[in-house]
């Protein structure tokens, strides 16, 4: 847990230094980019990320305000909605990935040999 906290804090610091939003934004945008038609229901985003529902609602509000996602009605259910990634959201995710990938290499990859990285990935995959 301590290692995870330190790595995530270092990544957040790299994002901030690059003038980018927090890692949570990347996580939501990535899930939307991967999704069919670039859209998911909020509960689907919650299930695919580590974000709690109350945090996710506020985050979606911020992403929408920045023009990175838009909410769309979900069929006949007036209470439900789709969250759809916009082209600006796709561009932001790609921009964030440039920093994120370098940050992962710096804070994780550079500290592990290739065999150790494979071993760690194998061990962690058992927990998922």
Automatic annotation (TrEMBL):
<dbReference type="InterPro" id="IPR036390">
    <property type="entry name" value="WH_DNA-bd_sf"/>
</dbReference>
<dbReference type="InterPro" id="IPR000835">
    <property type="entry name" value="HTH_MarR-typ"/>
</dbReference>
<protein>
    <submittedName>
        <fullName>MarR family transcriptional regulator</fullName>
    </submittedName>
</protein>
<feature type="domain" description="HTH marR-type">
    <location>
        <begin position="1"/>
        <end position="128"/>
    </location>
</feature>
<dbReference type="GO" id="GO:0003700">
    <property type="term" value="F:DNA-binding transcription factor activity"/>
</dbReference>
<dbReference type="GO" id="GO:0006950">
    <property type="term" value="P:response to stress"/>
</dbReference>
<dbReference type="Pfam" id="PF12802">
    <property type="entry name" value="MarR_2"/>
</dbReference>
<dbReference type="InterPro" id="IPR039422">
    <property type="entry name" value="MarR/SlyA-like"/>
</dbReference>
<dbReference type="InterPro" id="IPR036388">
    <property type="entry name" value="WH-like_DNA-bd_sf"/>
</dbReference>
């Amino acid at each position: 847990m301590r290692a995870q906290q330190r790595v995530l804090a270092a990544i957040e610091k790299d994002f901030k230094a690059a003038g980018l939003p927090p890692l949570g934004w990347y996580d939501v945008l990535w899930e939307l980019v991967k999704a069919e038609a670039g859209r998911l229901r909020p509960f689907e985003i919650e299930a695919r990320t580590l974000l709690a529902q109350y945090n996710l609602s506020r985050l979606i509000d911020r992403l929408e305000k920045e023009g990175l996602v838009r909410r769309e009605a979900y069929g006949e259910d007036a209470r439900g909605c789709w969250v759809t990634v916009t082209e600006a959201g796709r561009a932001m995710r790609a921009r964030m990935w440039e920093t994120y990938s370098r940050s992962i290499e710096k804070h994780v990859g550079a500290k592990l040999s290739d065999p150790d990285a494979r071993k760690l990935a194998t061990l962690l995959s058992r927990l998922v």
